[in-house]
C-alpha cells in the first residue's frame, strides 16, 4: 500500500446510465485531511460521484484510485467508512441500533473469531459519539429519520476508518441530529480524518468544510477552497 | 407423547423435526431480510427434478436432490445479480422448469406414489441412514450461519455498504442461496417440497412481530420452528394426520398469535414512549400478502 497516495483520485471519470452520461468526465483529488462537500442540484450526479469513488458504480471511461489502487484491486477497506443515504428496510427483519452499528466493524474482524472487547469498546464509543447510547437496544427502523442517520454514521465510526464518505447525511434530519452530526464531524476533522460528504446545503456544517465541489449535469462547475486543512493528517 | 417414543420411526422423526425446526428459520431470517421469501419455494421445485433424476437412475434421490437444488440455487443467485428484470421472473422460470422436469422424469417409472411422498413429506419412511445425512447437513448449515452470520447480516442490510466494507458479496449471496438449498433438502422428507419453505419463512414472520433485533428474531424464530415441528409431528401421530401440513398450520397459528401479541407490545411501547422518545407505531411491512392481511 502506497501511503503517500491520496484517499481518492479520479481522472476523467465517466458514468453512463441508460445511455445518458451521469458523470461526464470528472477530475477530483481528495487529499488526506480534506473535509470536502460535494454540492449541486438534484440529479447533478453527486451520489453517483461518491459511489464511483468507492468503486460501487463502475466507470465507463477514465480511472479512479483509492489510496493509489483501483477499486477492483483495493483490499484495505477498513480505511474507508461509507455512510449511505438511508437505512434500507429490506424484508422487515428488525435490527437493533447496536447490531447495525456493530456491523461497521466487519472489515476489521476475522470470521473465525467472535467479537472482541476492542470491538465492543469501539461500538460503545461510536454510539456515544452520536448520542445514541440510550437507544442501543431499540429497533433501528423504528427511530426517526435523523436518528437513523446517526445510526448509519455510528456504523461508519465503529469501523475507525481514516476516510469517511457520507451521502447526504443532513437530508431530512432534525435540528438535534444536525447538531450531533456537526459535532461528530468537528471531532473527525480535528483528528485529521478525511471526509467526503454530499449535501444540498451546508447549514451548520459550513465552518467545518475545507473545500467544496459543485456538480451540474455530471460535471464539476466550481471548486472552492474555504480554509486550510487544520487537523493533523493521518 | 410417551407412547409415540416407543416407535423407532417416531424417535428418528422427532430428532429430525428438531433439526429442521432449528435450521430452516435460521437460514430463513437472512432470506426474509433479503426479500427472497419465495426462494425456498423455487428451490423446492427444482429439487423435484433432482428427485426425478435420482429415481430414474436408481441412485439416491436425496443426494440427487441436494446436487440439483444447490446448482439451481446458485443459478438463481447468479441470474438474480445479473438480470435487470429482477428476481421474481427468474424464480418463476426455475419454478416451472423444476416442477415440469420432476414430474416428467418420474412419469416413466410409475413414480407417482414416491413423488407424492416427496411433495408432501412422509416422515414415517425415514431411516436411520437418512437421519445421519440430515444431521450432517444441519450441522453444516448451522456452522455456516455462525461463521458467516456477521457478513451475511451486513449483506442483507445493505449490499453497497457490504461491498464498501470489502466483503465478498457475490460469494456471500451464492452461499446464502446454497445454504437455503441444503435446508430444503434437509426438510423435504418430513415436510414435503411444496411446504418446505413455509418453515423458513413463517417462524421468522412470527418472531419479527415481537422482537427488536436481528439475533433475537433469529433465535425466537428457531424456537417457533422447533415448537411447531415437534408439536406438529406429535399431533399428526396422535390424530393420524399428515405431518407436513400439521407442522405448517401450527407455525401459521403461532404467527397469528405473534401478530396479536406484537400489536399489544407496540401499543404499550408507544404509550410509554409518548412522553419521551417519539417511536412510530406503524406496523412493519409484512413479509408476504398473507401477513399483510393479518398484520395490517
From TrEMBL, chain A:
<keyword id="KW-0813">Transport</keyword>
<dbReference type="InterPro" id="IPR027417">
    <property type="entry name" value="P-loop_NTPase"/>
</dbReference>
<dbReference type="GO" id="GO:0005524">
    <property type="term" value="F:ATP binding"/>
</dbReference>
<protein>
    <submittedName>
        <fullName>Metal ABC transporter ATP-binding protein</fullName>
    </submittedName>
</protein>
<dbReference type="InterPro" id="IPR003439">
    <property type="entry name" value="ABC_transporter-like_ATP-bd"/>
</dbReference>
<keyword id="KW-0547">Nucleotide-binding</keyword>
<dbReference type="InterPro" id="IPR003593">
    <property type="entry name" value="AAA+_ATPase"/>
</dbReference>
<dbReference type="InterPro" id="IPR017871">
    <property type="entry name" value="ABC_transporter-like_CS"/>
</dbReference>
<feature type="domain" description="ABC transporter">
    <location>
        <begin position="1"/>
        <end position="234"/>
    </location>
</feature>
<dbReference type="InterPro" id="IPR050153">
    <property type="entry name" value="Metal_Ion_Import_ABC"/>
</dbReference>
<dbReference type="Pfam" id="PF00005">
    <property type="entry name" value="ABC_tran"/>
</dbReference>
<keyword id="KW-0067">ATP-binding</keyword>
UniProtKB/TrEMBL annotation, chain B:
<keyword id="KW-0813">Transport</keyword>
<feature type="transmembrane region" description="Helical">
    <location>
        <begin position="91"/>
        <end position="111"/>
    </location>
</feature>
<keyword id="KW-0812">Transmembrane</keyword>
<dbReference type="InterPro" id="IPR001626">
    <property type="entry name" value="ABC_TroCD"/>
</dbReference>
<feature type="transmembrane region" description="Helical">
    <location>
        <begin position="186"/>
        <end position="207"/>
    </location>
</feature>
<dbReference type="Pfam" id="PF00950">
    <property type="entry name" value="ABC-3"/>
</dbReference>
<feature type="transmembrane region" description="Helical">
    <location>
        <begin position="245"/>
        <end position="265"/>
    </location>
</feature>
<feature type="transmembrane region" description="Helical">
    <location>
        <begin position="219"/>
        <end position="239"/>
    </location>
</feature>
<protein>
    <submittedName>
        <fullName>Metal ABC transporter permease</fullName>
    </submittedName>
</protein>
<keyword id="KW-0472">Membrane</keyword>
<feature type="transmembrane region" description="Helical">
    <location>
        <begin position="161"/>
        <end position="180"/>
    </location>
</feature>
<dbReference type="InterPro" id="IPR037294">
    <property type="entry name" value="ABC_BtuC-like"/>
</dbReference>
<comment type="similarity">
    <text>Belongs to the ABC-3 integral membrane protein family.</text>
</comment>
<feature type="transmembrane region" description="Helical">
    <location>
        <begin position="131"/>
        <end position="149"/>
    </location>
</feature>
<keyword id="KW-1133">Transmembrane helix</keyword>
<feature type="transmembrane region" description="Helical">
    <location>
        <begin position="12"/>
        <end position="31"/>
    </location>
</feature>
Amino acid at each position: 500500500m502506497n501511503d503517500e497516495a491520496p484517499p481518492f483520485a479520479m481522472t476523467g471519470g465517466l458514468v453512463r446510465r441508460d445511455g445518458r452520461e451521469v458523470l461526464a468526465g470528472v477530475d477530483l483529488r481528495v487529499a488526506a485531511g480534506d473535509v470536502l462537500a460535494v454540492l449541486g442540484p438534484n440529479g447533478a450526479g453527486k451520489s453517483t460521484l461518491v459511489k464511483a469513488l468507492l468503486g460501487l458504480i463502475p466507470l465507463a471511461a477514465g480511472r479512479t484510485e483509492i489510496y493509489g489502487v483501483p477499486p477492483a484491486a483495493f483490499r484495505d477497506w477498513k480505511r474507508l467508512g461509507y455512510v449511505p443515504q438511508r437505512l434500507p428496510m429490506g424484508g422487515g427483519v428488525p435490527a437493533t441500533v447496536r447490531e447495525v452499528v456493530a456491523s461497521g466493524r466487519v472489515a476489521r474482524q476475522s470470521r473465525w473469531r467472535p467479537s472482541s472487547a476492542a470491538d465492543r469498546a469501539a461500538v460503545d464509543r461510536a454510539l456515544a459519539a452520536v448520542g445514541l447510547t440510550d437507544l442501543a437496544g431499540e429497533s433501528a427502523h423504528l427511530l426517526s429519520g435523523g436518528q437513523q442517520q446517526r445510526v448509519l454514521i455510528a456504523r461508519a465510526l465503529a469501523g475507525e476508518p481514516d476516510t469517511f464518505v457520507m451521502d447526504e447525511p443532513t437530508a431530512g434530519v432534525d435540528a438535534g441530529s444536525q447538531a450531533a452530526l456537526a459535532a461528530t464531524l468537528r471531532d473527525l476533522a480535528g483528528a485529521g480524518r478525511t471526509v467526503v460528504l454530499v449535501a444540498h446545503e451546508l447549514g451548520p456544517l459550513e465552518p467545518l468544510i475545507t473545500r467544496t465541489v459543485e456538480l451540474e449535469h455530471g460535471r464539476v462547475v466550481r471548486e472552492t477552497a474555504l480554509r486550510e486543512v487544520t487537523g493533523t493528517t493521518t | 407423547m410417551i407412547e409415540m417414543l416407543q416407535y423407532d420411526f417416531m424417535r428418528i422423526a422427532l430428532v429430525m423435526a428438531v433439526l429442521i425446526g432449528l435450521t430452516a428459520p435460521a437460514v430463513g431470517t437472512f432470506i426474509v431480510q433479503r426479500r427472497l421469501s419465495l426462494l425456498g419455494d423455487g428451490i423446492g421445485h427444482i429439487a423435484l427434478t433432482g428427485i426425478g433424476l435420482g429415481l430414474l437412475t436408481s441412485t439416491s434421490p436425496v443426494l440427487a436432490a441436494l446436487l440439483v437444488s444447490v446448482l439451481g440455487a446458485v443459478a438463481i443467485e447468479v441470474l438474480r445479480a445479473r438480470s435487470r428484470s429482477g428476481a421474481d421472473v427468474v424464480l418463476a422460470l426455475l419454478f416451472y422448469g423444476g416442477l415440469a422436469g420432476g414430474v416428467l422424469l418420474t412419469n416413466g417409472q410409475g413414480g407417482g406414489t414416491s413423488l407424492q411422498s416427496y411433495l408432501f413429506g412422509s416422515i414415517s419412511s425415514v431411516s436411520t441412514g437418512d437421519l445421519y445425512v440430515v444431521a450432517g447437513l444441519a450441522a453444516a448449515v448451522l456452522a455456516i450461519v455462525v461463521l458467516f452470520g456477521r457478513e451475511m447480516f451486513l449483506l442483507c442490510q445493505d449490499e453497497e455498504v457490504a461491498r464498501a466494507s470489502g466483503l465478498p458479496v457475490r460469494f456471500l449471496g451464492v452461499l446464502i442461496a446454497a445454504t437455503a438449498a441444503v435446508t430444503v433438502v434437509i426438510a423435504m422428507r418430513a415436510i414435503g417440497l411444496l411446504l418446505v419453505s413455509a418453515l423458513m419463512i413463517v417462524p421468522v414472520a412470527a418472531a419479527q412481530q415481537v422482537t427488536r433485533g436481528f439475533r433475537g428474531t433469529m433465535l425466537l424464530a428457531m424456537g417457533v420452528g422447533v415448537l411447531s415441528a415437534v408439536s406438529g409431528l406429535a399431533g399428526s401421530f396422535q390424530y393420524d394426520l399428515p405431518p407436513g401440513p400439521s407442522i405448517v398450520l401450527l407455525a401459521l397459528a403461532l404467527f397469528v398469535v405473534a401478530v396479536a401479541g406484537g400489536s399489544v407490545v407496540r401499543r404499550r411501547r408507544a404509550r410509554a414512549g409518548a412522553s419521551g422518545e417519539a417511536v412510530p407505531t406503524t406496523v412493519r411491512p409484512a413479509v408476504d400478502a398473507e401477513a399483510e392481511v393479518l398484520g395490517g
